[in-house]
Design a protein that fits this description.
The complex is a heterodimer of chains A (345) and B (509).
Chain A: E1 6-8, H1 13-23, E2 28-30, E3 34-40, H2 45-57, E4 62-70, E5 77-88, E6 95-106, H3 113-119, E7 127-131, H4 141-146, E8 149-152, H5 160-173, E9 177-180, H6 181-184, H7 187-196, H8 200-203, E10 211-216, H9 221-235, E11 238-242, E12 245-249, E13 255-262, E14 268-275, E15 278-283, E16 290-297, E17 300-308, H10 314-324, H11 330-338
Parallel strand pairs in A: 2-6, 3-4, 3-7, 4-6, 7-8, 8-9, 10-13
Antiparallel strand pairs in A: 1-5, 5-6, 10-14, 11-12, 12-13, 14-15, 15-16, 16-17
Chain B: E1 23-27, H1 32-47, E2 56-61, H2 67-81, H3 88-95, E3 98-102, H4 108-125, E4 131-135, H5 142-151, E5 163-167, H6 175-188, E6 194-197, H7 204-214, H8 217-220, E7 228-237, H9 245-270, H10 279-292, H11 299-304, E8 305-315, E9 318-320, E10 338-344, E11 354-361, E12 367-374, E13 393-399, E14 403-411, E15 419-427, H12 428-431, H13 439-449, E16 455-456, H14 458-477, E17 483-487, H15 493-500
Parallel strand pairs in B: 1-2, 1-4, 2-3, 4-5, 5-6, 7-11, 8-17
Antiparallel strand pairs in B: 6-16, 7-12, 8-9, 8-10, 10-11, 12-13, 13-14, 14-15
The chains are: A alpha/beta (345), B alpha/beta (509).
Chain lengths: 345, 509
């Protein structure tokens, strides 16, 4: 593996970073809007995370603290590197740079995570902590209470039910904003579906929906559940279970069936909402940046629409999350609407 | 839950409300503004996903052309002027919402057929009877269009929808003409549905002035005559009159720029905190500033206002002609291409703090900024060292390179005491990498959403004209104060003297 920058002693990181900027000529400026901590326990993640940081630096300046930990390692060791991601500013010659401090924490050193984070933050800037590892007991309340935005991706979890419980507990004892990239990934879908129902004729169909069909790849089963939870919360549907089968009950007391089909290799590929005499189909090809929508409404010619969907690359999802800011009040509600359906070990 | 008006799926998707589906009717659809600004702005909004797909655009103009021809022309314009690259698939989808309605502006039947067409669009696309009329035409066309909109009933939304009108500047050429225009508009649309565009207000940094002032305790506490020495507002451009000579020669810099853009920036800089963020609360405060401007009348005009006209010179190493030698300019024209004025805001906060405003063409560098110059520290502590201490200056750059900088003094490293000015600089482009939307994007979206905050209200426009008309009136009494400056210079020397009387100099941009 290539070294992720210039090796430095951990106690000299600030000094070495200072030297880095002193040595650069006036054509480079350091920029930072946030502290972005990425914590991973996947040995192969250092390079991919460094690439990811490089690709977002031009749009969201940061001080990144990238931590690769192996708490189970026999030998305790801590190493650090510093580097910068620079890009030309719009004006040409001048370069704008974001700093990256990379740590490798093995064995006992991994327990130093909070102090590593606390001692290398760019002061006064928000702290976004992206945990790529699963949360585990005991929760470090002090660490999480310092985090402004806790980023995670529930799509990658092995035991989503247990992990959702842990994140709810973090949320209960701290002010941190839970930012599930799996929820962020749904934003274009939610946006496009909302667009479909702006038409007054379509809006009338919303309370009449009787069936939801979602197609997605096997890895996106929690993504499709969250989408279902969002629909249920927005439309006032309540989950009901009968003899092991599930459906929703509308406020008017009608039943809404749902089905998820595994298909494709890339996230959600289609959503169909239908009822008596109408259907709304939203579809996205794996490589496309667009949704194709088909609206079949009573008394209206079938309508085809093309809507921007953005890409579903991790870079785009992370950038979308960092750029949107704010809290995500609908996320816990969507989760609550489908929580009995969330798989666990 | 789901009522007939709200879409429950919209909640939580964006920090601002999605505009209602509507039909945008552009009068002057074959003109430059439509091609360069309006349709590219609409495409960008569609590409960003902030327009409802149900929106329809109808171009209204005299020339004969089909929908397909009109879409083709707009497609070329969007490819040329859009801030983001054009995706063919998305353009095709957006273009399907565009149609062309051929009619002369004074042809009443054209409005009747427009009404029928809009009803059809409401039914087919779900635009719910909401209509937004954009008058992208010369002011002399306003009257006939507004009158026909009124007579045809199009000034009211259909089936419970709304009808609004956007009016482009220039909004009048003086106070009487502005009042006349306002009366005409008011005869067709209530003030609440009238949106007078000043595109400077749509710029991100102009909107940031209020945030900078009122979201930072540091600045607002010092934003008054006790701490501020003077304020400079500059809008400079290296361009000449280009293709606008016919209009510009009748208008001049004072009416073209000061009456609207620069007085708006002055208002945002000088106003009191509004009682809320609603449109009228903000516009009330701006109007109070305009009413507090000390009138410049009679001889005061010649003491406090400098007007100039560019002569031949060079810009970026290229020779350029004098204003009077430009095509379509009267060779004996007295029109000012530069104006610098000292404005006093006679209220409690700004007593004794002059606002120096300057605008000019054929200046060495383009840029618009507001520079707040703070008072000097008492000359006691560092006087003995012989070190000069520069005053603090807070600069809000409106364009280009939008951002904010603060100049302060710092000790130079070393054993001796040497003080040098240093600059803390915030660049939008550096911190927020994504491209900021064009002003027209924001303003079109606001008008569709029914938010008039960034549009000028009737009383704002009229108060600004009142101030400017007095200067024009004094200029009409004599013309010998018109000075000349070389293209590529920073304007007439008289402007330097104007600010020097206050003990200051114009900032180097």
């Amino acid at each position: 593996m290539n070294e992720p920058g210039m090796p430095v002693e951990i106690g000299r990181i600030d000094k070495e970073l200072g030297k880095l900027w002193e040595a650069s000529d006036d054509t480079k400026s350091r920029a930072s809007l946030i502290n972005l901590v990425i914590y991973s326990e996947d040995p192969g993640s250092m390079e991919s995370n460094t690439e990811l940081l490089s690709s977002i630096a031009s749009q969201h300046a940061f001080r990144a603290i990238l931590i690769l930990a192996d708490p189970g390692a026999v030998t305790s060791e801590a190493k650090a590197w510093i580097s910068a991601h620079c890009h030309l500013s719009g004006k040409g010659g001048h370069q704008i740079c974001s700093e990256q401090i990379t740590f490798r924490l093995d064995g006992e050193s991994a327990s130093a995570l909070p102090s590593i984070v606390f001692s290398h933050l760019d002061s006064d800037l928000p702290l976004c902590f992206w945990s790529q590892a699963e949360f585990r007991e005991p929760l470090d309340e002090q660490l999480w209470s310092w985090v402004d935005r806790l980023i995670f991706d529930s799509r990658t979890w092995v035991d989503p039910a247990a992990q959702f419980q842990l994140t709810s507990r973090i949320c209960a004892v701290t002010e941190t904003v839970l930012c599930d990239l799996n929820w962020t990934r749904l934003h274009p879908w939610r946006f496009a579906m909302a667009n479909l129902f702006d038409h007054s004729a379509a809006l009338k169909c919303l309370p009449e929906i009787s069936s939801v069909h979602i197609e997605c790849c096997p890895e996106s089963s929690t993504t499709s559940l969250l989408l279902l939870g969002w629909l249920a919360d927005r439309l006032g549907w309540k989950l009901q279970s009968l003899l092991g089968s599930h459906s929703f009950l509308t406020p008017q007391g009608r039943e809404v069936g749902f089905e998820t089909t595994c298909r494709g290799e890339n996230g959600i590929s289609s959503v169909v909402l239908s009822g008596a005499g109408f259907s709304f189909r939203l579809h996205r090809e794996a490589s496309s940046g667009f949704f194709h929508a088909t609206l079949a409404l009573p008394g209206v010619p079938e309508t085809l629409l093309t809507l921007g969907s953005g890409r579903e690359r991790l870079t785009d999802t992370l950038l979308a999350e960092l750029s949107r800011g704010g809290r995500h009040p609908l996320y816990p509600r969507a989760l609550a609407a489908i929580s009995p359906l969330v798989p666990g070990d | 839950m789901t009522d007939s008006l709200t879409n429950p799926l919209r909640e939580g998707l964006a920090s601002r409300a999605m505009p209602d589906p509507c039909t945008l009717v552009i009068f002057g659809a074959t003109g430059d503004l439509t091609h360069r600004k309006l349709v590219p702005a609409l495409y960008n909004l569609a590409a960003d996903g902030v327009l409802p797909p149900a929106i329809s655009v109808v171009g209204f103009a005299r020339r004969d052309k089909s929908d397909a021809e009109f879409r083709g022309e707009l497609g070329e314009a969007v490819r040329k002027f859009s801030r983001q690259s054009v995706n063919d698939e998305l353009w095709e989808c957006f273009a399907s919402s565009i149609s062309y309605h051929r009619s002369a502006f004074d042809h009443f039947e054209g409005y009747e057929s427009l009404a029928r067409r809009l009803d059809e669009l409401d039914a087919a696309r779900g635009t719910r009877g909401n209509r937004l009329f954009y008058l992208a035409v010369a002011p002399d066309q306003f009257e006939v269009i507004l009158e026909n909109l009124r007579k045809s009933g199009l000034n009211h939304g259909a089936k419970g929808g709304w009808a609004r009108v956007i009016v482009e500047k220039p909004f009048g050429t003086d106070l009487p003409s502005a009042r006349h225009l306002n009366d005409l508009v008011e005869g067709a649309f209530p003030e609440a549905d009238t949106y007078r565009i000043d595109h400077y207000l749509g710029k991100e940094t102009a909107q940031n002035i209020m945030v900078l002032r009122f979201a930072n305790a540091l600045f607002e506490a010092m934003w008054n005559a006790r701490y501020i020495d003077h304020v400079q507002i500059t809008a400079s451009e290296p361009l000449g009159v280009e293709g606008r000579a016919g209009y510009y020669d009748k208008s001049g810099a004072l009416r073209d720029m000061v009456q609207n853009h620069l007085l708006q920036l002055l208002c945002l800089t000088a106003m009191e905190p509004p009682t809320g963020l609603d449109a009228d609360a903000i516009r009330d405060e701006k109007v109070k500033v305009l009413r507090s401007l000390r009138p410049l009348e009679g001889d005061d005009v010649f003491r406090h206002v400098v007007r100039g006209q560019y002569g031949a010179g060079s810009i970026n190493g290229k020779r350029v002609a004098a204003y009077r030698d430009e095509a379509n300019v009267n060779p004996e024209s007295d029109t000012e291409t530069y104006v610098a004025l000292q404005v006093n805001v006679d209220n409690w906060r700004w007593a004794g703090v002059p606002f120096f405003v300057r605008v000019g063409k054929r200046l060495p560098k383009g840029g618009t900024e507001i520079a707040v110059h703070f008072k000097s520290v008492p000359p006691v502590l560092f006087k003995a060292t012989g070190e000069a201490v520069d005053d603090n200056v807070l600069v809000i750059r409106i364009q280009p390179d939008e951002g904010v900088s603060l100049r302060m003094s710092a000790k130079m490293p070393g054993s001796s005491l040497r003080i040098e000015p240093v600059k803390m600089d915030f660049h939008y482009g550096t911190s927020f990498g994504k491209a900021t939307p064009e002003a027209y994007e924001r303003l079109l979206l606001d008008a569709m959403s029914g938010d008039p905050t960034l549009f000028a209200r009737r009383d704002e426009v009229e108060e600004a004209w009142k101030f400017v008309d007095a200067i024009q009136a004094a200029w009409r009494t004599r013309s010998e104060d018109l000075t000349f400056y070389s293209s590529g210079s920073w304007g007439p020397t008289e402007a330097e003297e104007l600010i020097k009387r206050h003990g200051a100099t114009w900032r180097r941009l």
